[in-house]
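Board notes (copied after class):
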Amino acid sequence: MSASVQDSAPRRADAQRNRERILQAARDLVREPGELKLNAVAKACGIGQGTLYRHFPTREDLLAEVYRREVEDLVAEAPRLLEAHPPLDALAAWFDRVAAYARVKRDVFAAIEAATWRDLAAHSLGPIGEAVELLLAAGRSSGSVRPDAEARDVIVLISWLSRLDDAELDARGPRLLSILIDGLRTPRP
């Protein structure tokens, strides 16, 4: 997989806006049936294909960045939620965000080669595990999360979300995540 042309160089404001529009359009379009077409992404953004290719030389580069961004957003949400909510409520709200992440993960991984998605999954596990541990540690510290709860256990339990189709994720996801939250609560004596 090649790197994005402008990964390390500072971007002009208009170039950064184009990049953000490209990523959002790709995130929206990857959910549609069939293969994600770069010309459809460029058309959705109202930019030329040359502009798209300057940011993402290949379809795989674009999809990998969509996934990386989704992981970054998911991980960044954990400390923000802890600032605004008690630990167990923050964890529950974060699980709501995990459901959206699972949809993007499923769609991106379905659209790229197996070797690429294995690499992306391996790199995202650490940051996601750290976000889960941050939330669990706050809950353990406050006494609201059981002391034996481990990040790896939570990751194993939420990993099934990316295997569900949209209808099942909508129908069962919130209830199953609520059951998981109840299982993480400190047991009452």
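Comment from the instructor: The chain has two domains: 13-57, 60-184. Helices lie at 13-29, 38-45, 49-55, 59-84, 87-111, 114-142, 151-158, 166-184.
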